[in-house]
Amino acid sequence: MEAAALLEAKGVSKGFPGVLALDGVDLAVHAGEVVALVGENGAGKSTLMKVLAGLHRADDGEVRLDGEAVALEGPIDALRRGIALIHQELSLCDNLTVAGAMFLGAELRLGPLLREREMASITRSSLARLGLDVDPRALVSSLRMGQRQLLEIGRALRADARVLIMDEPTSSLTDSEAARLFEVVRELRGQGVGIVYITHRLSEIEEIADRVVGLRDGRNSGALVRSEITQDRMVSLMVGRELTGVVRTPHAPGDVVLEVRGLCTAEWPASPVDLELRAGEIVGIAGLLGSGRTELLRAVFGVDAYRVGSVGVRGRALPTGNVRAAIDLGVAMLPEDRKQQGLVASMCVRENLSLATLRKRGRWLDRLYERGLTARSVDDLSIACSGGEQEVASLSGGNQQKVVLGKWLAAAPAVLMLDEPTRGVDVGARAEIYRRLDTLAAAGLAVLFVSSELDEVLQLADRVLVLRDGAVQGELRGERRTEEQIMMLATGAEARAEAQ
Amino acid sequence: MKKLIGISVLLLVISIATTLLSYDQDLGTYPFLSAYNLENLLRRVGLFGILSVGAAFVIVTGGIDLSIGAVVCVAGCLLPWFIKACELPPFLALVAVISVCAGIGLWHGLLVVGLRLQPFVVTLCGLLLYRGLMRNFTGDQTMGLGDAGEGLRWLATGKLSLGGEFGLPVPLCVLALVALLTGALWTRTVWGRHLFALGRNEEAARFSGVQTGRLTVLAYVACSLLAGLGGCLFVLYVNSAQASSFGNFYELYAIAGAVLGGVALRGGEGVVLGVVLGSALMQLLSNSINLVADSNQLEFAVVGAVILFGAGFDEGIRRYLGLSSDRKALVIFAVASIALLAVGGWLTSLGMGPWYDALHKPWFQPPSWVFAPAWTTILTLLAVASWQVWVRAASARIGAIYATQFVLNVLWSLFFFAMAAPVAALVDILMLDVVVMTMFVLYRRVHAPAGWMIAPYVLWLLLATAINVAIVVRN
Prior knowledge:
Chain A has 500 residues and is of the alpha/beta class.
């Protein structure tokens, strides 16, 4: 007989007001196995993870650990039993030191005193095993995202976790950090740790998973074993049909709508940026993390003030540091951090959709407008929610992003800027967003977007601007738009080659 | 909405309790209900309510204003000075004082928004600064209006007659007006929507084109402006202000009223009606203590205890709603048993006295110390047994029989002890015997151990019935 699974969900159901998030779901992970969980936004992946990690209690069904049903009392209880959740939003308190975070809640003590030195040395050695070389006394806030992710894993291993549940671990990592993470995952698998891996990046799953379990609308939609894992088959598990990628035919661009001249952001005061955007164009901005992509968009939108340079929209100058003026002149921006910047998460769908445009309807609340807008947007963008009064925080990532998009489309902008528009958004909703941007551009909207995913940039953009150190290193159109070209410009490899 | 209902119920319960507890036996009157007391109470509700609405403005943005009491002091000292020393026309003086106070709010707002200072720090320093300046400015002399500004004083001392003795104090009407305007601002205008959005997530609001800085400044202006208005009304009412004490601790009343009324300290949450009710609750408590305890020494302690109880109760309800239905049943049965124990004990204590002592009791009456532990045991077992049965076979029949048992049990203590009517009690206990024996049979059918758990209840009731019969016969 097969050995009992390390951790198993058996017929788990979980409902929230208005939705049944999980409906009799099964999932098992054995020792030394990487199980990938795939599904669209709202398919119930995060809920299932939370049930397994003790953050939610299942309404029905059971969670089994080593073949025995357990009632997890919470994440701490789960960790004590060897189940660790590496969360989508990194949960480390970033005002702690690395060693402090590592031992949080399980500090080594001598009576009332902390054994700082011992904790620091254990931290250093166990993180070194993960390939993370940081000073245990450094503040967590000084670590890069990838390093924090490894620290989270180190923390779970220190607690002798036998099951790691990783929710979108690479969503904020660079490629090399992600590669490092995969090495660690493989190593852990070799040591007999069971891993549940959730991601929207199907190529990662191909690379790392032993088994794939699909979820659709809160139910199991099938499973794939190692030899069957291909991107196409995973997609059909998620959406129930094969998805075709968007093939864009660039439209003939119209008049110049956005004109940036010699703009220097506060982060890159010595790198003036010039940029022109025409109606009907989709322009992608590529570059490594920290190359000044986000800062550029923020400055144009007026979130950050700049000293040097000018921004013009349809021939009219935009004042610096004035979001309201930018919106009024027809600029919209879908920011990078959806929960913190894009949405007021504790307000409802209706209030979020109308937040940017309500003031144009007079001083008094125009409830009729709000209701109409909500009905139109929910229908138009197929936002899956129980109604306009649902709290946005309870929507899935993709649906939240649609709410942000709906908010800006309500303003009928001339220029739409998007910063990582599909971060944490599943394949189905992603394709929908691409198609939507394509139609909008066809109707004359100028789109400027930043993305860390090269295939997204290549698929969507008519032309690509590559940033490095806050300056535009080059523009790629047509045939020259290749991953290699972008990476050369982004890393400066070409510049070095020419210099030699 | 639930919160509003909760506060309203609390207001009602405390009012009724105060009315009953402060009953004056010599005069046969209820001092709480006297026109004088009610007018006074409502006047204070109006005065403090205005401050609370102001505090709520700032709390909604996620900030705090600790300088409200000091601004009340500024208004209280400046208004008499403007009228008496500067000989400004009273109405003009009022406008001038309120403008000065609004200026203080503007200053707070600019420091908080422009320099990004902590609201706590800015307004704590303000608290010390303004009161200190006022003490120096007035030389610690008491400022009063004397006979000046008579017309203006109507705003604070006047009342709108409703016919009869009682009249609505004008400050309450001012509060109603302020609350109405604030409510319209918060819930009907874009400005209000933006204010609440910024309180919940300032960054997202800014990304949506909300002028967060300007709004925050306006909230501080509104807060100090209302504190100024309140301060003017206070000094018009008492007609004297001493800079060292005028308005001391008023910021705490204001903040407590707002928070009690459901304005969350994390920002972005609250309704004006809640603020008004919350601050009314604060004043009712203080009035209640004065009437019942005849002194105000305990005032702060009681206010603190009630707020803490309120918060705990709120959390308790939330936890209760999060329980599984099985656990909910256990909580309900446990609470019912505790209530039965408490009410029974209270009713019994009412009946203890010469009448009871004079009764001829039968030889098999147990000594009195047995009763408390006996009832505690019986009712604990009853709760557990009922829960066990409910979990296995919840039905309307079980619920009805339990409820009947509960009512008959309370009535027996009421008849026998509180009303000294043993015959009525006998009729009641005979019915109770039948009901509890039926329960015994029913419970056993569902879950045998649960049935046996209420056997002590049956036996004890039979004993009590025998005692009751003996008492009826022998007296």
